[in-house]
Amino acid sequence: MFILKSGIGNYINLSGKKYSYFAGNNYLGLANHPAVKKEVISSIEKYGINFSASRETTGTSELHLELEKLLAEFKNKDDSVVFASGYMGNKILLQALQDQYSAVFTDESAHPSIVDGISSDISNVYFYNHCNAEHLETLLKKNNNYKPLIITDGIFALTGEIAPLDKIYPLAKKYNAILVVDDAHATGILGENGRGTPEHFQLDDAENIFQSETMSKALGAYGGFISATKEIITKIRKKSSVYIGSTALPPPVVSAGCSSIKILKQHPELRSRLLENERYIRDEIIGMNFSTTTENTPIIPIFLNSKENANKLSGYLHENYIIAPHIEYPVKMDKFLVRITVSAIHTKDQVEQLLEHLKKWRDKYGID
Question: How far apart are CA 160 and CA 185, in angstroms?
């Protein structure tokens, strides 16, 4: 575990020393953006630190309404609702849709929030092979006496792989299923406007696709949100026990979300810069013969055959003032990995330094 002694950006401070930061999820560099910080300071001066109440009692402020309006416009949906954390989103959304399905089909490498979000009332839960639409169809066909809901990560948090919605959505239509996408790592990244995985596959306006999302990754703020029809959002506000029982997001967090959404819409070059950095680094890593994934996302894993080697590579980078952690996460994986995260604010010098040390590691220890 690293103990931060600074904010996060392309560099961080640990124990008085400066490190290149290729970790975390600050994909667009908004978590420490000067304009965001300025708005946050203003909101604290006006509203204080906490509204100290749930949204359905006395905790809703004009700031919450502004943020939800901005998110709905960004997502091109009727309405949005924000809540305490992105992790809650799948539980809230599945609860809102509960009368429309009787079985859940999910990727075997699904994020823990997906598995935790499935109600204990649903006994029919099926796991299909990772990103394997053929196996998903086999399960759908075999269990066609249920009303199906398919749920998957959009971008998988550890590997950066993109769920094949171009293959999954036709199955959802064929078997009359609802499709839910946890787009925590895709929001602000994928699609022409950064709306996420459905937009990436030209499915932005397709029927029966729902997204759970967060402001804590590319948007650099905090809190979860769902954008959907008025009917779904109203149902969440009036019937979700998780939403109703939670304290409203605090003023600084809401203000940060408002500011970040505006920056994202006004500066599409941030996404372009991010993807340019990512493509270059990934191509170079593949050229070194490291095992990795090929999708154009900010998450670049280096797969290794042992936990010891993953720890050694991460430690070697740390010794050379680069942070790229060996990640152990409660997700089904058959390899060990060092997770490199690319940001729009990484400089050319930082990128070349990272690649130089990866080459040195490869030449000394190999690629396994």
Answer: 9
Handedness of CA 56, 57, 59, 60 (dihedral sign): positive
Shared-domain flag, residues 283 and 205 = no
What is the value of pTM for the model shown?
0.95
CB of 132 closer than 8 Å to CB of 77: no
- Give tens-digit pLDDT for 233-270: 999 999 999 999 999 999 999 999 999 999 999 999 99
Task: Tell me how far apart the alpha carbons of residues 164 and 181 are, in angstroms, rounded to a whole number.
Answer: 11
Task: Report how far Cα 313 is from the mean position of its chain's Cα atoms.
Answer: 25
Parallel, antiparallel or unpaired: strands 209-214 and 224-228:
antiparallel
Q: Angle of helix 230-239 relative to helix 89-96, nearest 10 degrees?
A: 110
CATH value at residue 219: 3.40.640.10
Q: What is the pLDDT of residues 199-211, one digit of tens each?
A: 999 999 899 999 9
* Residues 32 and 7 sit within 8 Å (Cβ to Cβ): yes
- Answer for the pair 28, 343: CB distance below 8 angstroms, yes or no: yes
Q: Which residues pair with 281 in a beta bridge?
A: none
Q: Are residues 277 and 241 in the same domain?
A: no
> Taking Cα atoms as reference points, which of 74, 119, 112 lies closest to residue 97?
119
